[in-house]
Amino acid sequence: QVQLVESGGGLVQAGGSLRLSCAASGSIGNINRMGWYRQAPGKQRELVAIITSGGSTNYRDSVKGRFTLSRDNAKNTMYLQMNSLKPEDTAVYYCNAAATFGILYMYWGQGTQVTVSS
Question: Which residues, other chains included, contact 108 with Cβ-Cβ below 8 Å and sequence gap of 6+?
Answer without folding.
Answer: 4, 94, 95, 96
